[in-house]
Amino acid sequence: MDSLIAASARALASGDALGALKRVALRDDPPALALRGIAMAQLGEHPRARELLRRAARGFGAHEELARARCIVAEAEVALAVRDLSSSPRSLAAALATLEAHADHANALQARLIAARRLLLLGRLDEAETALAQLDTRGLPLSLTAVAELTAAELALRSLRIEPARAALARAHEAAGRARVPALLAEVAEAWTALDRPAARRFFADGEQTLRLDEVAALLASDTLVVDACRRGLGVGAAWRPLARRPVLFALARALAEAWPGDVDREALIACAFHTRHPNESHRARLRVELGRLRALVTELAQIEATARGFVLKPHGERPVVVLAPPIDGDQASLAALLADGAAWSTSALALALGASQRTIQRALVELEAAGRVRSIGQARTRRWLSPPLAGFTTILLLPATLQME
Question: pTM score, two decimals?
């Protein structure tokens, strides 16, 4: 490694992208191309960064597989930054194997972190936790330690484990401070704010209350029957009944919970579940069928009894009933939550993260764009969607697979 390449690498490690570019901007050999690509990524020029990293990977010969693996890892991190989640993880796994075979522990950790962060974006929390459990940050750069702790904190927050999240954020702040990388310090500070922002709204008989993440976690762990509109289900403590794939049943459960301890008349239930203002005998028959299904599903948690004018929800043990609503109103709340990170997402990446079809996502984006809540950049296959960061509250509870409970 010549002196200019070494100096450029040191500048990049300290976060000085411009200083790195000054040393290699006019060079086209593979090591210089790789460093230029990383520098461009740090400056936010992601398409140019990916192009340079691919050129560098192609430029390294067959005997330079370690350098080529490092380029693949760097390009995978850029892809993550631009929310390109469609690429196969096989190339990253192959690069990881090469790095470990050559005892390049720092870059191997980087590859594992990229894989874990990708799983988090896709809402595959169990797999992300398994990936993070394999990390060993001892003796590695402080910047990587900070990123690892930030990833662990995000996993804990999305699993509503508040105290482990606080501990991970404290370790991330310490490592980022010792690394003296301003971007990392800013990312840790932003993660801290999620703990203090409103995360959900609690509806009950007497009104509405905003809740932080720790208050949401305490509510879900209590003896209260919670109808959760963030994750589309209901439960008491560890007992959980998911209704995300049964929207009619969830609409009925929410209507009954909002009226508790009173009842709801049949016409109102038909209107909220079937979206019609002119019910007929067919709607009334279907209402009885759907309420029967809901009654069977929640039989261990509550009873649904008929009244003179409709139906009433009666939880077992005289426990209270609470509706937990998202901080964002509307059917596109989860989509808005993903876009709230300020990154530019492709339609395919949004569909992959939410488990929906691209056509469904496109229709939702058109509605959000008409309402002025998102904007697009680029055309055709290069089109990306983004929205301003939502600073007033956190959208953690609306992200994919926020909390898996069976």
Answer: 0.81
